Amino acid sequence: MAQDTLEHIAALIAQADHIVIMTGAGASKESGIPTFRDALDGLWSKYEPGELATPEAFEKNPALVTQWYDERRLSALQSKPNAGHIAMAKLQKRLESQGKKLTLITQNVDELHQRAGAKDVLELHGSLITWRGASTGEKQRNLPEDAFESYPPKHREGTPQEELLRPDVVWFGEGLPEDALQEATTQASQCNLYFSVGTSSVVWPAAGIVDLAIKAGATTVEVNPTETILSSEYDHVLRGPSGEIFPKLLELAFPD
Length: 256
Known about the structure:
- The chain is α/β, with parallel strands linked by helices.
- It has helices at 6-15, 25-29, 49-52, 55-60, 62-78, 83-97, 112-115, 178-188, 209-215, 242-253, and strands spanning 2-3, 18-23, 101-106, 122-123, 126-133, 139-140, 154-155, 163-169, 193-197, 219-224, 236-239.
- It folds into two domains: 2-32 and 81-125 and 176-253, Rossmann fold; 42-78 and 130-169, SIR2/SIRT2 'Small Domain' (2-Layer Sandwich).
- The chain contains ten helices and eleven strands.
- Helix 1 (6-15) packs across helix 10 (242-253) and helix 6 (83-97) runs parallel beside helix 10.
């Protein structure tokens, strides 16, 4: 592991044919979105995340669970992509124009990458912006811009198939979306430059995807303000927020 200069990492970016970027909560926190545990304040401070983010919690008290998630959904909609999101999207577009590739994998559920212009983002933990039928799994995106009128909200209300809606996110005890996870592991196994950005590296299996890049011979870079439990596993480290680092990397890698 080495604490590196922006110039050195920018040179790696310019030379790479396939870059994978894995983002975590820190990348969204720069847009004002609290991390999962930070979100438990005010009215929700008396709860533990496990009391609100499990299938069992939803079954026991769907009104409580969906109200909390709806507040988080509205918070995400009111937030804007930060300079890091925008720089990553621009980098993806720049590489594609050169016949190269950038794959974005995220543990975040706010869709800020997509709103910044990124394409084909692999969402390992789902999305707050999409909800789905609790029994059928049928997804719904045409949700109200304001809060739901009542909790728990219902899908196809008033029909014989009426069912409760739940956020299309991964709860404790649930598996990651198979398609997204498979594609993420495939891309990590094929890249030659891998970034971990704004993630504490404690959530698995997402934290272990870097191992696939290492086995493939990729150079690995951690971008985070503080040290993580996996910092020593990375070839290079840049300390600081992604909203400051990635715009500079983009400018240095492609100064024109």
